[in-house]
Amino acid sequence: MIKSYTFDFTTDTDGSATETKVFPGKVDTISVDYGTAVSGTDLTVTGYNGGPSFTVFSNTDTNTDFSVRPEVLLQDNTGSDIDLSDGQGGNTAKYGKYGVTALKCTIAQGGSEKTVKVTIMVEI
Predict the structure, then answer these.
(1) How far apart are CA 68 and CA 31, in angstroms?
(2) Are 2 and 121 contacting, i.e. CB atoms less than 8 angstroms apart?
(3) Greater confidence, 65 or 89?
(4) Mean pLDDT taken over the chain
């Protein structure tokens, strides 16, 4: 099942905004509508899952709307990246969706009192 979560931002006078939402699942799609944000806006989506935080997606110096399906390189139980090598010098890395219990979206340099809408589709 896919569920949609929306972060509706109006930036502070310094051009920044931050919000955290708690929801468990796997990040499927991040869509951004920069609304009235100025060129040069930064967006960072940070994930949490009980350990240290990690960057799910980061985009700097833009105000062009977009959608992205972020993926993470999967690791085995030793912490090594999973690599499906063919033994001939080629390799195929294995990727998957980011598992999270919460996400924080941060806007910087967006301009004073500008709007940005971030929609995150999560597989639950």
Answers:
(1) 6
(2) yes
(3) 65
(4) 92
Residues 6+ apart with CB under 8 A from 28: 2, 69, 97, 121, 122, 123
The predicted structure's pLDDT at residue 87:
60
Q: What is the CATH number of the domain that holds 42?
A: 2.60.120.380
Q: What is the number of other CB atoms lying within 10 angstroms of the CB of residue 114?
A: 20
Q: By residue range, what is the domain housing residue 12?
A: 2-123
Structure tokens at 120: 């995150």
| Per-residue tokens: 54 | 């990690």
Structure tokens at 13: 């006078």
Q: Which of 30, 18, 25, 20 is nearest to 118 (CA)?
A: 30
Residues 6+ positions from 72 with CB-CB distance below 8 Å: 95, 96, 97, 98
Please state the domain count of the chain: 1
Q: Is the pLDDT of residue 114 over 90?
A: yes
Q: Give the span between the Cα atoms of 61 and 39, in whole angstroms.
A: 6
Q: What is the pTM of this model?
A: 0.88
